[in-house]
Amino acid sequence: MFFAHEFDAEITNQIGDQRLGTCIVLPEEIAARLPFDTYTRLRVDAEIGGVDHQGAWVPYGGRYKMMLSRRLLARIGKGLGDRVRVSFNVADQDAMPLPRELVDALEDDMFCEAWEAMPIGQRRSWCYRIDKLKSQDARLRNVDKLTAELLG
């Protein structure tokens, strides 16, 4: 896959004297070419250390960082202080993959209308919350919880 942006980064847990979670920091020269004036948080499709990753560059202390989970670090076999190759493309900022269980629930017109009225960030959060669950029962319970919240 072709990536528009590539660089090597150190896996760190701080910017300057500020401590934060495990992350990588976007070089300023790349940040200057990205649409941060339009999007505070910039969602990207990336490859970190050769592993596919969907993440976001988020502002922190005048710079931009991307958080790295323990699971991702284990998959790439890297940790704090290690250097890693980062390649990414800016993702469609409005795209939101819907979990199958949520697609089924959206067939109800009242639920769909309430869903569309929610801010995009809340919808994305619910999609992530449902999608990360492994058990079908847990996924369905979360859809039921969302339905109750929206249709009360």
UniProtKB/TrEMBL annotation:
Top-rank taxon, per record: Bacteria
UniProt cross-references to InterPro entries, sorted A to Z: AF2212/PG0164-like_sf, DUF1905
Fetch the Pfam families from UniProt. Answer: DUF1905, OmdA
> What name appears for this protein in its UniProt entry?
Bacteriocin resistance YdeI/OmpD-like protein
Q: What is the phylogenetic placement of the source species in the record?
A: Bacteria, Pseudomonadati, Pseudomonadota, Alphaproteobacteria, Rhodobacterales
